[in-house]
């Protein structure tokens, strides 16, 4: 029993000595980290306002602000470790060895990060543009370090990993798209009357862009029909609704103008007649 009491007393004395020796340093280190965290947020906000005046792309601003915040927080962490008396060189060497293992385990994440930086700096597309990539289409809503978000016509969002974008064939429509409508009419109709009716419909739609000019003309010829191509330019967000509006208006207009659709054909083959 006396031995146990002496061990407990010795442990208490050791804890008290450690508390007296390292307690103030730990408190100061915690204060340094807290001050560094809030300083990083403040510096990031100031830096973000300054970058906003340079008219940089949102992903670029986000990346630079995050880098500045991490630098401030990292500096405060180094100061806190130095206050505790931690040797930084062995720590950095150990982190390097651990980082190599983490990099091997997180190849997909790091490849997304590298691809995100490539997209941000090369800018093959920007926020607000309409693109088609890896089998999906949509308006670019956000470009992050690891993924790109595309909004769809049905109000859903497709999240594409950045590594799936870099190195693939990218179709960037920009902010406008060209509708590709085809209107069949009977060969016996007056072509000029049909073209004038379709042109009136296209020009009457307020969401059709005047520049670039719409293309309306004969594109295909068949035995009993003529195919008229209607290709107006619209905003990417109006692509689906404007197409439906024009199709409906053309049906009403060409019917009122006396233009007929091609007659339906049915071919009957008699294999064996007796």
Topology:
Layout: H1 2-52, H2 58-83, H3 88-105, H4 107-122, E1 130-133, E2 136-143, E3 147-151, E4 157-161, E5 171-174, E6 176-178, E7 181-186, H5 191-204, E8 215-221, E9 225-231, E10 233-235, H6 239-256
Antiparallel strand pairs: 1-2, 1-5, 2-3, 3-4, 6-10, 7-9, 8-9
Q: What are the key terms here?
A:
274 residues; alpha+beta; Helix Hairpins; SH3 type barrels; Alpha-Beta Plaits; 3 domains; 5-stranded antiparallel β-sheet; 3-stranded antiparallel β-sheet; 10 strands; 52% helix; 19% strand; elongated
Structural write-up:
The chain has helices spanning 2-52, 58-83, 88-105, 107-122, 191-204, 239-256, and strands at residues 130-133, 136-143, 147-151, 157-161, 171-174, 176-178, 181-186, 215-221, 225-231, 233-235. The chain is elongated, with a radius of gyration of 34 Å. With 274 residues, the chain is of the alpha+beta class. The chain has 3 domains: 2-86, Helix Hairpins, CATH 1.10.287; 124-174, SH3 type barrels (Roll), CATH 2.30.30; 176-256, Alpha-Beta Plaits (2-Layer Sandwich), CATH 3.30.70. The mean pLDDT is 78. It has 6 helices and 10 strands, in the order ααααβββββββαβββα. The strands form 3 sheets. It has a 5-stranded antiparallel β-sheet. Helix 1 runs antiparallel to helix 2 (58-83) and helix 5 (191-204) crosses helix 6 (239-256). 52% of the residues lie in helices and 19% in strands. Strand 1 and strand 2 form a beta hairpin.
């Amino acid at each position: 029993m006396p031995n146990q009491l002496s061990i407990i007393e010795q442990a208490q004395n050791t804890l008290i000595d450690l508390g007296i020796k390292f307690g103030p340093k730990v408190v100061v280190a915690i204060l340094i980290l807290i001050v560094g965290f809030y300083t990083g947020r403040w510096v990031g906000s100031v830096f973000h306002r300054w970058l906003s005046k340079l008219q940089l792309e949102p992903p670029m601003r986000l990346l630079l602000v995050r880098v500045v915040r991490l630098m401030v927080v990292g500096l405060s962490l180094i100061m806190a470790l130095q206050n505790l008396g931690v040797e930084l060189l062995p720590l950095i060497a150990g982190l390097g060895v651990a980082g190599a293992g983490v990099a091997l385990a997180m190849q997909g994440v790091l490849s997304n990060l590298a691809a995100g930086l490539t997209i941000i700096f090369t800018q093959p597309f920007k926020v607000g543009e309409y693109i088609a990539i890896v089998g999906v289409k949509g308006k670019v809503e956000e470009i992050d370090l690891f993924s790109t978000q595309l909004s769809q016509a049905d109000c859903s969002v497709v999240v594409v990993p950045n590594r799936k974008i870099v190195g693939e064939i990218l179709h960037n429509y920009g902010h406008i798209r060209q509708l590709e409508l085809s209107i069949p009419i009977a060969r016996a109709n007056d072509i000029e009357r049909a073209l004038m009716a379709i042109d009136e419909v296209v020009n009457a739609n307020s969401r059709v862009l005047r520049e670039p000019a719409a293309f309306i003309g004969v594109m295909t010829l068949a035995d009993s029909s003529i195919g008229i191509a209607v290709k107006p330019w619209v905003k990417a967000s109006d692509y689906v609704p404007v197409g439906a509006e024009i199709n409906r208006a053309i049906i009403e207009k060409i019917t009122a103008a006396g233009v007929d659709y091609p007659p339906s054909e049915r071919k009957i083959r008699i294999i064996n007649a007796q």
